[in-house]
Amino acid sequence: MTAPVLNVSGVSKRFGGLQALSDVALRIERGQVHGLIGPNGAGKTTFFNVITGLYTPDSGCFELAGKPYSTAAVHRVAKAGIARTFQNIRLFSDMTALENVMVGRHVRTRSGLLGAIFRTPGFRAEERAIAERAQALLDYVGIGTYADHKARTLSYGDQRRLEIARALATDPQLIALDEPAAGMNATEKVQLRALIDQIRRDGRTVLLIEHDVKLVMGLCDRVTVLDHGKPIAEGTPSEVQTNPLVIEAYLGHGAAAQVPA
Length: 261
Ligand SMILES: Nc1ncnc2c1ncn2[C@@H]1O[C@H](COP(=O)(O)OP(=O)(O)OP(=O)(O)O)[C@@H](O)[C@H]1O
Ligand SMILES: [Mg+2]
What we know:
Blueprint: E1 6-15, E2 18-28, E3 33-37, H1 44-51, E4 59-64, E5 67-68, H2 74-80, E6 82-84, H3 97-105, H4 112-118, H5 121-141, H6 156-168, E7 174-178, H7 186-201, E8 205-209, H8 213-219, E9 222-227, E10 230-235, H9 237-241, H10 244-252
Residues 44-45, 87 line the site of magnesium ion (MG).
C-alpha cells in the first residue's frame, strides 16, 4: 500500500485561552478530494495554517507521502509539496495574472523568488519556459484570456481561480483550498466543481475546506468534520451527513440551513 499523501496526528494549537485545535489527526489518500468541514470557528483555517507552516503548532506529527516534513517555514512546506489558497484572497494585486502564477512557479526554479524580483541573468534564462507553463495553467483554470490583466481587475471568482493556478504552479503533492467557492455565483460554482474534478483526474490530491454542502457532498471522496477544534466525524459524504454528532454540531451553532440534507 502506498503511503497517504498527508498523514498528520496529534495536532494542537492554542491561542491564549482558546484551544483552536485539539489533537487533530487527518490522513488523505493519493488522488482523493478530502473535505474538511465544520461550523464557523471550528478551526479549519487554523489547521491549514498549521500544516502549511504559517502558524507554529503546540504539538503534532506531520508526514507528506510517507516522509516527515517540517512546518517551521512556509517556503519549506511549499518546497516539500503542499500548496494552498487563502480564505481571504492573497494575490499580488498590481501584478498581472501571468506574473502571479510565475511567482508560484519559482518555488521549483533554480533562480528562486529573489531572482524573479531582481531579474538576474539566471532568471531571464528560465523566464520563457516559466511564462509558457504559467500561461498553460491559466488556460487550465479557465482564465487564459486574462493573462495580461492585473489581478485586482479580475472578478472575485476569477481571482480564486488565479490562486488555484498559482498553487498548481508549485507542482504540489497536495493542494489545499480554503473556501474556493466563497463569493462565487451558481455558474462559477459549477465550473469550480469541474475544475477540482479535473485536478483530481490529473492525479493530484486535494484538501478542501468548503461551506457549500452541495459542492462538498458532490465532490469529496471522504470528509472530516471539525467542531470546536476536534474531529467529530470522518467518512464518506453520505456517512458524514447522517452522523448525529455532525447534525448536532451544525444545529448547535444555529446553522440549520447548512446541515447536510
Ligand atoms: N491568529 C489568531 N489569533 C487568535 N485567535 C485565532 C487566530 N486565528 C484563529 N483564531 C481563533 O481560532 C478559532 C478557529 O478559527 P478558524 O479561522 O480556524 O475557524 P474556521 O473553521 O476556519 O472558521 P470559518 O468557517 O469561519 O472560516 C476561532 O475562534 C478564531 O477566532
Ligand atoms: Mg476559515
